Amino acid sequence: MDKSFEWFNQARFGLMLHWGLYTQLAGEYRGRRMDYIGEWIQSRFEIPNEEYSRLTQAMNPIGFCAEDWVKLAKSAGMEYIVLTSKHHEGFAMYRSEADPFNIADATPFGRDPIAELAEACQKHSMRLGLYYSQELDWHEPDGGGYTRGHTNHGMSWTNDWDFPENDKKDYSQCFESKIVPQVKEILTQYGELCLIWFDTPTTLSPAQSQTLVDMVHTYQPNCLINSRIGNGLGDYTSMGDNEIPDDFKSGGLFESPATLNDTWGYKSFDNHWKDAQTVLSIKRHLNERGVNYLLNVGPDALGRIPAPAADILHQVGRG
To answer: How many other CB atoms are found less than 10 A from the CB of residue 205?
Structure first.
């Protein structure tokens, strides 16, 4: 086995964190509650970019403490952390030179959370990976997903409320002007990364997927790439969301991304938490089949891990 893969094969347990501009809404918009996962709220209610972007004015997560996140993950027995650097809304959770639509430049917070998390991970010997939505970007006129229609629980994969002419969209424009520069940024600004977690590929051409793979290999030779890079590429397989296989023999590197409640991005009213024994049971089930358990929690608008989630993770560590 390639040495860069060995840590992943042994890690077995990681923490995923979905944190973005959507967190400001906490699953509610104009008196309506989000009936699906919180980070898709802009698409569900077709919130115009002009209005959605104003959420930056209220984004000031003064409760964020990277060291607390890392210590919590360690207490649960987790070996790596994966944070969303940009989700489908197009908002970067780090200081991006490529696009001012980011937490450091567009909000009162004015800080780079990923820089702080990278420092805390290094201090406490925790591996850091970054999620990046390389195809979907609702902030961009040529963001991808426009060939898929409204197939995600009735929601559109592309922003066709601000930019309705899907037949005129050209993802290559978005890819060259934003995706490539931002992927380079996250690969070069935060020290050694253990993995890049790409997502939702359909519009990407084989050449575009290969371009991103080559960038990772160039700037981070030991960094793993998940299968959602698309076009049959990647170093390991990301299973379906919350997929817990029964009869399964891995024969490779596999990871199941799963939620601690029913959402990825924070929803204030989603209190359907799995208890510690359920988490331990799922972890045991997956690990026995050679599958890593990447368990997600959505921090709130202040940057805090919800107290019930923190309690459960502490109990998991003691279990």
So the answer is: 14
Torsions phi, psi for 236 (to 5 deg):
-150, 165
Quote the Cα angle for 203-206-210, to 5°: 115
pTM of the prediction?
A: 0.98
User: What's the pLDDT tens digit per position in 199-247?
Assistant: 999 999 999 999 999 999 999 999 999 999 999 999 999 999 999 999 8
- The answer to whether 309 and 318 have CB atoms below 8 angstroms apart is no
Q: Alpha-carbon distance 105 to 116, whole Å?
A: 16
- Cα separation, 69 vs 73, whole angstroms: 6
Going by their DSSP bridges, the two strands 32-33 and 28-29 should be labelled as antiparallel
- In contact, 197 and 187? CB cutoff 8 Å: no
Q: What is the pLDDT of residues 132-146, one digit of tens each?
A: 999 999 999 999 999
Sign of CA dihedral 148, 90, 173, 217: negative
Under DSSP, the state recorded for 175 is I
Tokens 């898929």 appear where? 148
- Collapsing DSSP to helix, strand or coil, 115 comes out as helix
CA gap 147, 156 in Å, rounded: 10
Instruction: Give yes or no for a contact between 6 and 194, defined as CB atoms under 8 angstroms apart.
Output: no
